Amino acid sequence: MLPGTRPRDVPKSVRDAGASGFSLTLQHDLLELPLRWKNPKKIFVNSMSNLFHKDVPGDYIQ
Fold first, then answer.
1. Residue 47, SS3?
2. What is the DSSP letter of 32?
3. pLDDT at residue 48 above 80?
4. With 80 as the cut, is the pLDDT of residue 59 above it?
5. Alpha helix locations (H) across the chain?
6. CA distance 15 to 11
7. Pick from 62, 38, 61, 34: which is nearest to 50 by CA?
8. Rg of the chain over CA atoms, in angstroms?
């Protein structure tokens, strides 16, 4: 946990990352979220991560 923060203030990916902050996190619950939106939106997918990391399953990115 980051000093001075409450658990709800910290994104799920950071809470679950462990001490290094760099463990792989797959958020299956968020993949279908855009399908429920009524209006089209641009989605920024990835900047500082590796979508094609060896531990990311192929069906996760298809």
1. coil
2. T
3. no
4. yes
5. 12-15, 28-31, 58-61
6. 6
7. 61
8. 14
Q: Alpha-carbon dihedral of residues 45, 29, 34, 48, nearest 10 degrees?
A: -10
Q: What are the extents of the domains in the chain?
A: 1-62
Distance CA 42, CA 21 (A): 27
Tokens of 29: 């619950």
The two three-digit tokens of residue 20, written as one number: 């290094």
Burial of 41 (0-12, 13-18, 19+ CB in 10 A): exposed
Query: Which pLDDT band holds residue 39 (cuts at 50, 70, 90)?
Result: very high
